[in-house]
Amino acid sequence: MNDKEAILAMLSRMPDSEWLAMEERELAKFERSGSTETLALEVDGESRPVVLLTVRGAKSGQQRRVALMRVEADGSYALVASKGGSLKAPAWYYNLIANPVVQLQDQTTIRSYRAREVTERERELWWKRAVEVHPDFEHYAARTQRIIPVVVLEPANGG
Fold first, then answer.
1. In angstroms, rounded to a whole number, what is the distance separating the alpha carbons of residues 53 and 112?
2. Torsion over CA: 95, 101, 102, 106 (sign)
3. Dihedral sign, CA of 16, 17, 22, 26?
4. CA count, 13 A, side-chain hemisphere, 114
5. Consecutive H or E run containing 43
6. For a Cys-Cys bond, which of 103, 113, 132, 135 suits 54, CB 3.0-4.6 Å?
7. Burial class of residue 111 in the structure, from the number of CB atoms within 10 Å of its CB (0-12 exposed, 13-18 middle, 19+ buried)
8. CA atoms within 13 A on the CB side of 29
9. Where are the domains of the chain?
10. For residues 110 and 104, is the Cβ–Cβ distance under 8 A?
11. Mean pLDDT per 10-residue run, the chain (159 residues)?
């Protein structure tokens, strides 16, 4: 197992509490700058842009924020519920399904969106886009037996 595979294996087994702690550290960077540019992830020596999703918690009703890889096309965004190839989807996915009207920040622009899970051909199209942005999504998919959900955000109320 190489270093990258070891990291992917660790991520896929990471408990929710550790995921949340990791997210909080990243969000602290955002709080200091106000732009998602500070949240860009370093992957294989490249800086990959992220967006900031704000969604209402399914159980708590509290606002939850999470930084996710930026996959955008024609003003819509795809969110990939990979959780590093874990056996279950990340908490934000369940929140999104329960509360599909969300806010998304891309750099300093904040807009409202409506989320919907995509399937079949539309999922294939968005999956391809996501893998172009973050090739590790393919590794995550290989690590799990579940089909990794892809959720598309489209502008709410026409924009």
1. 10
2. positive
3. positive
4. 5
5. strand 41-43
6. 103
7. middle
8. 15
9. 3-158
10. yes
11. 60 63 64 58 68 93 91 97 91 96 92 97 98 93 95 86
The pair of three-digit structure tokens given for residue 132, joined into one six-digit string: 């172009």
Q: How far apart are CA 140 and CA 101, in angstroms?
A: 27
Nearest to 15 by CA among 61, 84, 104, 79: 84
User: Do residues 59 and 92 lie in contact, with contact meaning Cβ atoms separated by under 8 Å?
Assistant: no
Residue 121 vs residues 124, 128, 150: alpha-carbon distances, Å: 5, 11, 12
Partners of residue 154 on adjacent β-strands: 114
Give the global pTM. 0.77
Residue 17 to residues 24, 26, 62, 138, Cα–Cα distance (Å): 11, 15, 17, 25
Amino acid at 85: G
In CATH, the architecture of 3-158 is: Roll (2.30)
